[in-house]
Design goal:
By secondary structure, this protein is of the alpha/beta class. The protein folds into 2 domains: about 55-155 and about 295-330, Rossmann fold; about 160-290, Rossmann fold (3-Layer(aba) Sandwich), CATH 3.40.50.2300. The chain has helices at about 65-80, 95-105, 125-130, 160-175, 190-205, 220-235, 245-260, 275-280, 295-310, 340, and strands spanning about 55-60, 85-90, 110-115, 135-140, 150-155, 180-185, 210-215, 240-245, 265-270, 285-290, 325, 330-335. The strands form 2 sheets. The protein has a 6-stranded parallel β-sheet with strand order 2-1-3-4-5-11, with helices on both faces. It has a 6-stranded mixed β-sheet with strand order 7-6-8-9-10-12, with helices on both faces. Helix 6 (about 220-235) packs across helix 7 (about 245-260).
């Protein structure tokens, strides 16, 4: 799962379609001088073909439903543009291998690079290398250690996920005295997990009737979700709500819950998997909501890369350049809006 930093301004987008609506922008000095778009030129969000652009795409191995959806969104978005060629590498969780793949794309002289690094800090130098070679970089989700290593950053809001989950649960339990909640987190070694947990704790401060009574960290897998959830259920005979950071591990968590015959609490997931949305729509389990961390960001990264390659701005913005940073909004999906978001759910 992705690791991000809450850097700069936040930019709200809805994950309703593969093309995100960008609502704010900042500026960042690119490594190579770009020719501003004339006001009468079509924006990158338009479907009218522009000059040919080759986009190099390098991401980690798709060993998780969200990462597989990242690759799928990038490919399908690129296919919508007749003038875009996507040169996509074979995903790898080996840092050295991914650095080599990016260097190969640099040597091919692609027009723009989209990089979702296995480790943002470890790949910062190769991002800098690309920028210095005059190839602008779209840094996707896991952020580089230096803003000079990318022209534009686009990613999710991990802290915001925690806040959204906490506020949703808080509103559901605000009338209950001495309410208890538990948390099934991701990998504690990751900054993203710490950010999600901090956002959740901060949101719960607004609800003095609610106490966080237990927390377990899992590994973003079905197996770990089931094992850690079983431990939580054994330790906590009674509680009112569960926030699970990740819908993939949530599949295992739900198995443990069903095996224990527990129905006495509500469960909020994270990321926006189709399995979670199907459960929300069916409304026959403890799963009542999920907080989005939309993989459609990869499709938006292709839009941004196309814009850079064609020296265009973004539809809906007055600026002649693309933003320097885009952070997606962590929307809550429940039974009131699940039909709207269901097409974006990933397997």
């Amino acid at each position: 799962m992705p690791e991000t930093s809450r850097r700069g301004m936040l930019f709200g987008t809805a994950a309703i379609s593969a093309g995100a609506l960008l609502t704010a922008c900042t500026s960042n000095e690119p490594a190579k001088k770009e020719t501003p778009a004339a006001n009468n030129q079509p924006a990158a969000a338009d479907d009218k073909p522009g000059k040919p652009v080759t986009i190099g795409f390098a991401g980690p191995q798709a060993d998780h439903g969200w990462l597989a959806a990242i690759n799928s969104n990038a490919k399908s978005r690129a296919e919508k543009y007749s003038e875009v060629t996507l040169d996509i590498t074979e995903g790898s969780n080996d840092t050295a291998a991914q650095i080599g793949q990016v260097e190969t794309l640099i040597n091919k002289k692609v027009d723009v690079l989209v990089i979702l690094p296995t480790d943002g800090k470890a790949l910062t130098q190769v991002g800098l290398k690309a920028m210095r070679a005059g190839i602008p970089v779209i840094n996707l989700d896991r952020i580089f250690a230096s803003p000079q290593a990318y022209r534009c950053y686009i990613g999710g809001d991990n802290y915001g996920m925690g806040v959204s989950a906490g506020n949703y649960i808080g509103e559901k339990l605000k009338g209950k005295a001495n309410a208890k909640v538990i948390e099934l987190a991701g990998i504690d070694a990751l900054e993203l997990t710490q950010q999600r947990s901090q956002g959740f704790k901060d949101a719960l401060k607004n609800y003095p009737n609610i106490e966080l009574v237990a927390r377990q960290a899992a590994d973003f897998t079905v197996e770990s979700g089931q094992a850690k959830m079983a431990q939580l259920l054994q330790a906590q005979s009674s509680f009112d709500a569960l926030w699970n950071h990740d819908d993939d591990q949530g599949v295992g968590a739900l198995r443990a819950i069903q095996q224990a015959g527990r129905k006495d609490f509500l469960m909020v997931g994270g990321a926006g998997a189709k399995s979670a949305m199907d459960a929300i729509k069916a409304d026959n389990s403890v799963v009542k909501a999920t907080v989005l961390y939309p993989p459609t960001m990869a499709a938006s990264a292709i839009d941004l890369a196309r814009a850079l390659g064609q020296a265009k701005g973004i539809g809906g913005l007055a600026e002649l350049e693309i933003p320097a940073s885009v952070t997606l909004f962590s929307a809550v999906v429940d039974k009131t809006n699940v039909d709207q978001y269901l097409p974006t759910g990933f397997s």
